[in-house]
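Submission sheet (multi-component)
Chains listed below:
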Amino acid sequence: MSKLGVGVAAVLLSVSSVQAQEIPAYAFKNVTIHTHDGKTVEKASIVWRNGSIEAVGTNVTVPFDAKTVDGGDSLHIYPGFIDGYSEIASPDMKRDNSRVERPGEPPYDKAGIEPQRSPFAEVDFKKKDVSDAKKAGFTMAAIGLKGMMLPGKMDVYYLAGDDAQANLLESDIAQKGAFKNSRSVYPSTLMGTIVKFRQLWADASALQVKQKNYQAEPSKFSDPGRDEVLEALYPVINKEQPLFFEVDEKEDVERVIKLKNELGFNLVIVSAKQAFRYADLLKKEKVPVLVSLDLPKEPEWKAEKEKAKKDTTKVEKPVPADVQAFRDKQWAAYADYVKNLKSLYDAGLNPGFTSYGLKWKDFAKTIETLKEMGLSESDLLKSLTVNTAAVLGLNDKVGKLEKGFSASFTVTSKPMFEKKSKQVYQVVKGELNDVN
Amino acid sequence: MFKKIVLGLFVSCMMLSVAHAQQKGSVLIKNATVITAAGEDLQNTDVLIKDGIISEIGKDLKAPKGVETIDATGKYVMPGIIDAHSHLAVTRGINEWTNPVSAEVSMEDVINPNDEGMYAALAGGVTTIHVMHGSANVIGGQGETIKLRYGMNQDDLKFQGAPRTIKFALGENPTRVHGQGFGVQPRTRMGVEQIVRTTFDAAKDYKVKREAYLDEYAKWAKRKKGLEPDPVARNYRYDVINDILAGKVLVHCHSYRADEILMLMRVFNDYGVKNYTFQHVLEGFKVAPEMAKNGAHGSTFSDWWAYKFEVYYASAYNAAIMNKYGVVTSINSDSEELIRHLNHEAAKVVKYGGTSIGDAIKMITINPAKQLGIDKQVGSIEKGKQADLAIWSAHPFSIYAICEQTFVDGVSYFNRATDPDDMRLVINPEEDYKLHETAGREVDACMSGVFEFLGTATDSHSHN
Amino acid sequence: MKKLNLFLVLCFWAVTSLQAQITEKPEYGKFAITNAKIYTVTNGIIEQGFILIDNGVITEVTAGVAKLPAGYKVINAQGKSVYPGFIDSGTLLGLREIEAVPVTNDQAEIGEFTPNMRAFTAINPASVNIPVTRVNGVTTVIAHPVNGTIAGKSTLINLFGYSPDSMAVVADAALQMEWPSSGKRGFWDQRDEKKIKEDFEKTLKNINDYWEKARFYNDMMSAYEANPKGKSKPDKNVEWDAMRPVFNGSLPVVIDVNRENDILEALKWIKEHKGIKFVLSSASEGWRVADKIAEAGVPCLVGPTLRTISRSYDNYQAPYQNAGKLHKAGVMVAIRTGETENTRNLNYNAGYAAAYGLGTEEALKAVTINPAKIFGADSKIGSLEKGKMANLMITNGDPFEPLTNIETVFINGYKIPMISRQTQLFEEYKDRDSTN
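Outcome: structure written.
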């Protein structure tokens, strides 16, 4: 999307409520609908009103009050993609190098323990990664803040305009967590971080009871006071809210699952770049997963080798045995990573998607690589839509192009994952943006 | 982008896991000189292992059907070496150095089963290691005793039934980190003692309150009438301290100087702590009679010294003197390099101080097993014990002795004749062949992760 | 605080020097070692023979039974073996007392190029580390400075004497240089490939600039000295002046280098500088390019042998086999420990090389005659031959074996007391009166 395009979209959106009253409904006709599970419906129409899809299919009569775009059989419509765990729109982490008096007893924020933080106050939808995500076909994201072991709450936002309030779909859906620690204060190690989770749970659980007691019988119990940090953990401790946890390594996944079983909370595994090593474990533990598509770089020698093969004028230099052995292992490892998402489907799981770790400029190339390495388009689309919606608990509202669902979708000039495909329109909760 | 520096974006090599899917092995080793570490060496002797257990030791044993026979004529079989002090197989930090007391952290939570250092240790005949917290704080974290079942999951490495352990540290390291580094106690050996006493006292006080609450809660829980009592939250740190005081956690204390060794024994006598081991203990030879009287064990280097001031008056004769006075003495590595030749480290104890070869063998087998509380299971070649052992081309105290095969629970995890060069379990696909990061020189293992915050330069290979 | 520190340091030195004192005097004069198995190194093994020593010099090494002239102290070595004293080709012995106490570290001067620094100057003959080393049969070591790129001159010293002057075999043995690394410096090194290459090239350029200036200085001075008439004497540059022996081929240059690529770069550089004696040191990946090193005709000071693999995919034995592989390729090999207080473990570093491919005989050469040759001291030390300095040990077996005892050591003809602070402490504490 050009800068001008962003500007236009912003203007459109800022006056959208007025527009919605002016025009009761919209429709596309003569378009190809790509459903969340990879099916295509040609010569279809889609009608939406008040932000929801009213009708979709080949057998649809476009109502008189719907402003209609005729696709002329050349436009393609995809359900809006959902980023299940995102740091887009988050400010960067503050660098705080000030020394604390006692590194063993730092204030909560120094230790990266900030579950009370809410993205709402801090998100900035003008950031470039937001427009990049929209360009990639995303219309919604569960957003959290950058941080360390407990960086704060997560909210779900539409990727419409700049106004966080207008974009907000659900607030405080989860807590964000990771095995990330400061290196200069407690906890400064992984083992410290793990036990700090335990201690926080113990402290918060106790405080919760004390507060209840005091509230009920202030004359009998002493006032335990308030602690916004521990209080923010109550919903996770009470299993009213899941903990979205960033992990890649198999060993780390084993660690966080052990914590989950010990402390009792609802866990969602996020990132999971090594999920091919532990798909069975996720299945056994019934832990939902949002997979990062941040792939390793293809080993350089691979491209060089392909090139040399094609060059008939040169004889390839033999590779020494030790180097060849190294390369064989390296390639196997590379393939494992690239087939990561597929391996989860093969294990019978329904992985969702996170943009965590991904560079948006690599998105198209990444999809291409995934498909080359055997991922079907239907599985890909499911991860980007319904699977993620299900993890977020929004599967009755978003992720499908079906009646009653949010009218959030992307319109392209060709099938989206083909080369030279361009985004023509994007509809976010009913608001039509002409990307051109 | 795929982050290059994040350690552990790796791939498993399934090959090995499959090979070791069966965790208990059976094998017959024929006609070896068997160093039992429990009496005389046995000449021309067979050792039969069934399902991971040594089932028979004798002559002319027959292999049960389907059990492999290894001809070890002219070779030596010795118990798997046990290293009572290691920092191998740990991920992201061995030192929760930030607080003078960090008893709540545990190596159990951070075992890295993919550390190639474990394979190198197996190649030196090592089968069990005590994975320890570092020495930056007075009461450090809990240790984990693991078997080198290289290729298995982190939980599968654990030595089942091994007692819990914890690291303490005295002297220069804690006083340097906290006192010198941050201006908090301890800055002196006086302060070190007070940290221990204060912590023990606070833990005992907490225990009284916590138990009173648990009693109250239990009473309330029976009927659930009215409001539950105000909780006394569980304190993970003091729980561990109380377990030490109750004898459920064995203390392994980093120590060097004679006075600090005496100090801790005094404190432990006051609080009734028993069955502990001094680690490094380079001046143990100066207070060996007192150690023996208190039943304190000593786990030391064969010859490291002079890398810091508190070890300037140390001596390679340390182990020999401690042993002479009846202290249960072991030789440890505290190093991914040294762990590969603990057999020769033990041999030096014969050279420096005239310890018998038999006693020196015990210093890397049954003695460390005693210090870790696993001597009923491992540490010697005796009927009924777990089959952790190695086959050597010559007497393991000879410099020319090469370890040929190492078994854990009767399963071969190292075979010099058949193993490939590259024994990595996990592979970072972005790793370049030539630009490969080197393991480099030994760093100050016990203090790793600490120096960058103290501005202390560590060049080359210092120890702990 | 500073003052207190200084006070402590002074106290500590006072105590140290007291403790370091070994009161027993060495014996000197005429000795006859009889009935010994003699490992001459240069003339094979004499199964039964005798050695005569007269005022520091070996005057006879002969098979059979000695007919002794009068005045010789006889050491009957029946059943024992005699070896030349071992030479460690790279240590910090005498320069560094206690690693963690900076004021006792004299191995690293400030500066990138300090060729005028002489290790000889800072050798502390009273270092407690020295007796501990020599009683294990290591009679002679290279002690070298370590700072910057050109650190200064190493010194070849005997481990007995009251002054550096009396200890020196070759006061200035070599110019010590550290090759800049073209790879990552460690896991913490976050420079990308391009930056690493740039840094390397920059450092190399600095070396070349410096080197060329020093070479020019030598030419200029030589021209002036050859015919000073009518020329004004150029000013002296102490640094470049210190490098003049390098350019006339009398002072070897020891290059400390480890990685495969770095070794290749160093060899390329060596090739460009004809007429200079070069030696490689450390060379942990020497085995990868053994043929290239052999082709360049550059000797190697290998070690320590007891180190971990440099690449995680290498065979675990690679460091043990390094010396053997280099020797097989035709490289002259010496062994170094790189140690200070535990230089006594030279025996076992050589032993590992022996066991893993070098063989006992060659390993023996690698700690005797080879380093003597490399440092131009083979007329004085490195073998048991008539006319050489009496540096030798009498043992009850193979000195590479940890169970072997070194029973008698001669250094420069002195029969040294087999005492160190460690043996003194042993004597004091082995029978401690436990009631005190």
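Remark: The radius of gyration of chain A is 24 Å.
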